[in-house]
Structures are given as structure tokens and as C-alpha cells.
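Chains adopt folds. We examine one example:
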Amino acid sequence: MSQAKRLSMIEKSHPHLSVVNQCQLLKVPRSTHYYKPKGERDRDLELMKLIDIIFTKWPFYGSRRMTAELNGDGHPVNRKRVQRLMKLMGVQAIYQKPNTSRKHPDHVIYPYLLRNLTIDKVNQVWCTDITYVPLSKGFVYLVAIMDWFSRRVLSWRVSITMEADFCVEALNEAINRFGPPEIFNSDQGAQFTSGAFIDALKAHHVKISMDGKGRYLDNIFIERLWRSLKYEDVYMRAYNSVADARMRIGMWLTFYNDQRKHQALDYKTPRQIFEAGRACGYVHNASALHTSPQPQQQERDAIDQGKMVA
């Protein structure tokens, strides 16, 4: 059982067990139970929320454009501060830049395998990504594992750090519940190039695919998921704590999987498509997902025009 699940089992008002005893029984450090997000300065938190909103709308904005946008909207800030906050949030512009840094010697970068590939069945391709989620006093990171064909979110985790552990945990849950995919696609983030994450995929003989550096359109459907989640829930609420964020995100993802109908899926839900596919090798020709450059360019044009919806 994951630490997150064990944490959720702790009851402050338990009639027989104190919080200390519950932590001992569940093997959860008391410091983790009592953790509250590190208090960033209120001004930084305000700027980070604004950066997240702007970046979700215009993911091609780097620190220079982001600084200009913030200043133009009446939020005076210098570029150095914006760069620091964007780095803390784990966001970068989608365009490719010269790679001037040396890669970690133990982190192998794999080629992108989805170009010109027709994805026409469930468990053919899975994808993943991490996004920043603001809280009223702090922030967390969210990772999700998605089936590309059905758009179903197979597993997810919330974390207070960008370490690889929570990503590996989400991956293992998805594989344990649904079996391994043929191909797994991610970006080149350190969490997904880590030895633990790669080893988990190799143990199940999964082919590994990685986006070109900075090319978020190579993983378009999970980027749409983040956009929908943030506009439909995150920005409409003020998550009070890590536990509150985990609960609210879980509720929205259940809605997304079970009730949110997609035009590209003939107005079926991700769960309907996924379960039909697992039951009978379902192939939905009308929504077979071609990943050729032309549709990707259409996606890019739609985003540039502000028309992208999930």
C-alpha cells in the first residue's frame, strides 16, 4: 500500500488510537503526517499562480515573454525572479533550445516512437507527465499515467517534491491493475529517465519512447488533460492542503474518466472506450489516432488560436 493511501487512513478523532499510534501502525513518519507545504512568500505564490494560468494558456511562453506578460497585466516583476519561479514549478517553454548542459551519465534518452504511428487500440501506448498544482499556501506536483487511445487516466499521484518515487509508484499501480502497454511515452524529465523508472518499464518489456526536448505536442493528450483539470477545477477552487488537493483532484479525475464524454471518442467516456477495448480488442476506426506531422501541426495552430479543448 502506498504511503499516500496510508496517510489517508489516519483519523485525528479515532476513538481508540492516537495519531502517534496510527502513524506507528501504518509505518508513516509523524513528520510526513503533520507536513504543511513550505510557506513561499505570499508574493511568490501569487506570481506562481499567475505563471501557471498563463503557461497553461500559452505553453510556448519562455521567461522573457512571461515577464512581459506579467508586467503588462500590472504585476511588476523582473525576469530573474520569473526564471527562478518557473524552474521551481518545473515548467519550460515548448520550443526547442540548444542543449548547453551535460546530461546525467546514468540517464539514457530514448527516441520518439510515435511519429507516423497509428494508435488504434487500448494498452498500445501509455503516456505520462507532471504538472504543478497551486495550493492556497504552497503547491504540489501531480503525475498521471494515461492510455493514449482511450484517454483514460490509469493512475496518478500527488507529491510535495519532484523526486522520481511518486512517478514510479504511479507506473507500478497502472501496470499491476491493467497489465503493461506496448509503448510508454514521456518527456525527458529526470523522473522518467531515472534508473528506477526505466527499470520498471524494462522489467515488463515495454518499448520506451521520449518526446523531443521541449516538444509538448509529442504528448498532446495528457497536456490537454492538464488544461481541462486546471480550468475546470484547480483555478475554480483554492485547495487548502495536500490532502484537500488529493481529494479534489481524485474527484475530478473520476468525473473525467467516468462521465466526461469526448467528441473524438464519439461522445463516449474514456472508461467506456478502455473497458470495451480490453474486453474484445476493440478498434475504433473513426477515432484511430494518427500521430503524423500534419495533425500535430493542426493541434499547434488550434492552440495558437486559443481554440484547444479536451
